[in-house]
Write a structure and sequence with these properties.
Chain lengths: 374, 374
Amino acid sequence: MSGSPLRVAVLGAGTVGREVVHALLDRRDELASADGASLVLSAVAVRNVERAVAAGYPASMVSDAPAHLVADPDIDVVVELMGGDEPAHTLIAAALSMGKSVVTANKHVVAHHGAELEATARRTGGVLRFEAAVGGGIPVLGPLATDLAANRVERIRGIVNGTTNFILTAMTDPASPFEFEAALAEAQRLGYAEADPSGDVEGLDAVNKLVILARLAFDAWLDPAAVATRPDGADGPAGPGITTVSLADQQDARRAGRIIRLVATASAGDDGEIQAAVLATALPLESALGRTSGVRNRIEVDAVPVGRIGFDGPGAGGAATSSAVLGDLMAIARGAGSTWGARPSATGPTGDPVTRPDRPVLIAASGIRYPIDD
Amino acid sequence: MSGSPLRVAVLGAGTVGREVVHALLDRRDELASADGASLVLSAVAVRNVERAVAAGYPASMVSDAPAHLVADPDIDVVVELMGGDEPAHTLIAAALSMGKSVVTANKHVVAHHGAELEATARRTGGVLRFEAAVGGGIPVLGPLATDLAANRVERIRGIVNGTTNFILTAMTDPASPFEFEAALAEAQRLGYAEADPSGDVEGLDAVNKLVILARLAFDAWLDPAAVATRPDGADGPAGPGITTVSLADQQDARRAGRIIRLVATASAGDDGEIQAAVLATALPLESALGRTSGVRNRIEVDAVPVGRIGFDGPGAGGAATSSAVLGDLMAIARGAGSTWGARPSATGPTGDPVTRPDRPVLIAASGIRYPIDD
């Protein structure tokens, strides 16, 4: 793989983009691999060119036309860090259809358009890598596709949304427990939650990550809309994600030696049927997931023959996430291919039913039935 | 990588070898990758051919001449699972010098001959993979070399020896604490400790694993003999590994909110100097390492920019370890190269001093000064 360096365009200069750009500018030699494969930053697409130049980006590199950078024959690798659905989806699809390599941290696009993007990449020989889309800097997709490739995964589950886990942790602070609204306000104050927190607190962000984990674990792209997010209430489905979790519910859980956390779970039955859910779940206080506090993430893989493997770390933040983006860039430089590695093709959403795991419940005084897990 | 399957010889049919052989025989299609790369078991070297055939190994495959298998031009990949220094070391070196690929779980050979074996592999283009040598089935070397490649590792530490961790856990069982000797006897009864437990309890097994982790983290092969294993006593160095840890010492630690566990630590200073030690260490009861109980392993990587990543799982056992061996075989089938990936060459042992991290201590009533860590 030695020879000309790969020319990289970074789309988006937000929290993660800024870290990636600085690393590519400042640590170029360090990021070159021993066999000579190297990366050179050619362009950065930003919203406001003047502001980017004022902030120190080289004027020769900045552009407000990401589609031009994608189409530019002098760009080999596109790093999509804009977030959201469009134009990110179209830009990624366009790059792959030209056979270019793409690195993205965009869990929404990968979860909602993964089957289409995978088909395009396989058709053109383009490479799509997205380690940063799940667990920030925690290596989990790579290990699933490579190191654990000889295993049959039975279940994958985890705490994959730092915002909700911060809120649920603050609510159970023994010194000064917060009510949900106050905990959310504190998360917003600290920059852990957005002004519109619905994607996090309603579980949609965790659903996206679960869909991506399931792709690596079970070789199927689930339909995000098919993943259950609502626990049962006294009279049918209650609110999604953690929106039902009151301080009183947490205290009910604590009396049972448990803590309510938002857990994403996907498992495969012997018949190939996949069960998946993102539900506020009552976990033992003393379990590894129960003790995963604040904005940390933890993902557990139960597989045969290996047993249970746990991965934990900072699940968000520009610096941590840049580790995964840069790792993916280095993987592309050494010719490692897409994140799914040598796993079989996955199509989907297949229309196959995604059912909800059947679990015993803890019935809070509020009437909400929180599934319990070990 | 499609085309002829790679022909594999497994040397050694003990706990791990048996699992690997059965997987290669029973799950051949499953272990083939989507792009057609596949593996076929051609031969198994055993101590006693008659017994192996009686146990169900195909007679056409078994041999008691591992060196012949290594030399056989019809063997592409050698899986060394004999353990110990010789003849394992010579067989691995011979295979690599012929440009063959080698997978091994042999931490002793990799730690003590790693620099030589790496040099040979780089010279001939042979491939050496050894994920199974550290942490059983826990993916940690692969993630260090690939997913975390963009990071500068500051420290790596962990509980990497299940036998000693089982003993130390049994000593602190609140229901019925064991004295050291009784805990060791229990570990032997359950098959977690060997008849001669010195390699485990004196810390040498953990030293080997630390040397291998440091290779991936810091691109240097440390001299195993240079890694400190003895805490200070009242009058100079005390016994190695966990041999000093009495029930009374554990109780002294518990009164300080701590638990003594065997922790392997390596860190790199700004000047490139590497500090490394395997010491019985007083950890907070409530920390992730403090809570790692029984035969489980946990390895933590502190790195920039990612922060702290933790990996945990079953650190030993035939089934778990076979996951890593088979994963390495599949990596070879898809052309992934050696475990060190694109990291720079490491030479050594360099003769550079390996110093011992300087830490505050907990002085037990016995006079032993156990370093404390967070």
